Amino acid sequence: MSAMGVPVVVVGFGNVGRALVLELVEGPYSRLFDLVGVVSSRGAVVICDEDGLQEVVSLAKKGEKLDKHRGFSDGVGAVEAASEAGAELAFIAIPPSYHTGEPNRSIYYGLAGKGVSIVTADKTVLAHEYDKFKKFIAEKGLFLGYRATVAAGTPVLDVARGLRGRQIRRVRAVLNATTNYILTLVEKGMSYSEAVEKAIKEQLAEPDPTIDTHGYDPAAKIAITVSELGYTTSIRDVERLPLDTINEEDVRKALREGYRYKYVAEADLEEKKLIVHPVKLKETDRLARASGITNIVEFILEDSPVIVEGPAGPAWRTAKVMITDALEYIDSRTPPEKA
Length: 339
Ligand SMILES: NC(=O)c1ccc[n+]([C@@H]2O[C@H](COP(=O)([O-])OP(=O)(O)OC[C@H]3O[C@@H](n4cnc5c(N)ncnc54)[C@H](OP(=O)(O)O)[C@@H]3O)[C@@H](O)[C@H]2O)c1
Hints:
- The protein is an alpha/beta fold.
- It has two domains: about 5-150 and about 315-335, NAD(P)-binding Rossmann-like Domain (Rossmann fold); about 155-310, Dihydrodipicolinate Reductase, domain 2 (2-Layer Sandwich).
- The chain has helices at about 15-25, 50-60, 80-85, 105-115, 125-140, 155-160, 175-185, 190-200, 210-215, 215-230, 250-255, 315-335; strands spanning about 5-10, 35-40, 45, 70-75, 90, 115-120, 145, 170-175, 240, 260-270, 275-280, 295-300, 305-310.
- Strands 4-3-2-1-5-6-7 form a seven-stranded mixed β-sheet, with helices on both faces.
- Helix 1 links the parallel strand 1 (about 5-10) and strand 2.
- The two termini are about 35 Å apart.
- NADP nicotinamide-adenine-dinucleotide phosphate binds near residues 93, 95 and 313.
């Protein structure tokens, strides 16, 4: 273990958490970090020595659960583990909680309350209370990185930040790979339920597929994107029409006639209206191009749109985006050299 790195904990040891562990320990920037703890839903490991670290790495490589680690403590949560391990920065990679916000909210406020900066891939808190949480972080003099919350792998939020102060009229986006995949299967002849089942089996859909098919995931992403543009909003302001509002035969008929259905997230900033809904697009519409894990966001302003297009996920790419945030954290705490 390096003696000079930033002490970090990883909260969540699933697809993203495991990939992050490997980036932090074996990736190109590993010398900048000391992994001092890992947390899952049932408990935590505080890493005290090289053997403990290598055991976590081995579990991550094998895709095994954290509770197989010899140092696993049952019932220890993220805030307790981060304190005990002396972490300065926490990476959060836990499932979203759009209905109640918990336990995610308590984890974020708990960590920040203990003076721990945060890099997150989970959208929950920013989707619900963007301004409130950012203010809380700022008052504590902490860092919050959240590039991975929208189109992890493509810097949509960097572009949004760079457009602040401009007269944005609308945002149109395809931000959810799972519904893209489901629509492609429906175009090929499957029913929605068969397509959803296949997406779950292939670990593309969340175990609770309504997070995707009822629009919570793209609603959270459009809310965060619009807030980043300077128009603070919340997932609660986004109207959501489920994907299966359009029947399967209409999806196939559209394809035969030169159209594609896409699950589009839209924000009309003049009318203050946000919606996620299936939309019939001409094949020439650039949003109709979104396939597989490609996300597309179109910011409509002035006389020409600004378009961002690129991959979102999978887990290994998401982990790399979280490292980008962590590098920004390191830069932010390095005092500038005197001239
Ligand atoms: N996959 C991607 O490419 C991607 C891209 C962008 C954003 N994200 C976001 O990243 C997050 C993680 O995604 P994932 O694919 O890694 O999910 P995942 O494979 O389901 O893993 C979730 C992990 O979180 C742990 N966990 C659940 N509740 C917890 C709690 N209260 N405290 C500590 N750990 C807890 C789980 O513990 P157990 O091991 O005990 O079940 C599991 O290890 C999600 O919010 C997702 O939306 C993912």
